[in-house]
Amino acid sequence: MQKTITVLLLTIVFLISLNSLKAQTPISQLSRKVFYQLPYPGVLPDNPVYFLKQIRDKISLFFTAKGQPKAEKLLLYSDKKISMAKELMKRGKVKLSLKTAISAEEEFAKLLTEINENNLTDPEFTSKVKLSNEKHQEVIMQLIADSQLSENNELVSKILNLIKTNSTEATKI
Question: In terms of Cα–Cα distance, which of 38, 155, 172 is closest to 94?
């Protein structure tokens, strides 16, 4: 019961903070859907060979040069994971979907760190990152709406904390 109340309070706080951000946005943009094409997710976490995809991605990321190339790869991985979470929710795999969304937001946080550490200021790229962040928020809010809150309090709380932190950091770039 306490966990349910905590999740509901965190959700309310998050929605209030989103509303304060929307108050600065022109009325014409408030109800718009974010037009950002998420990549095809490929192999999903419920597939037995998914671990091979993870290994491949980690190796590829390790050998990618720092700066813009690494940031672009992190953006792709983050977008793919949020796309996976969306697909898993469609298939009714709520808990795995929420865990994958958490992983997507953790990947997005790495992206923001890479941008900040390397002072990446390419306007086209930073604009893409901000748009991606908005799309992530849209997808996550839909995932939360579709999930059973009482069964997934901790996961929802973690996702809300991550998107709040990522949103704050994304506005700084």
Answer: 155
User: Do 157 and 101 touch, CB atoms closer than 8 A?
Assistant: no
Cα of 52 vs its chain's centroid, Å: 22
Q: Taking the model in full, what pTM does it have?
A: 0.76
In this structure, is residue 32 part of a structural domain? no
pLDDT in tens, 65-98: 999 999 999 999 999 999 999 999 999 999 999 9
Give the total residue count for the chain: 173
Domain count, the chain: 1
DSSP 113-170: HHHHHTT---HHHHHHHHHHHHHHHHHHHHHHHHS-GGG-HHHHHHHHHHHHHHHHHH
Could you list the residue range(s) of the whole structural domain that residue 136 is in?
2-12+39-172
Dist CA 139 CA 56 (whole Å): 26
Tokens of 88: 């898993």
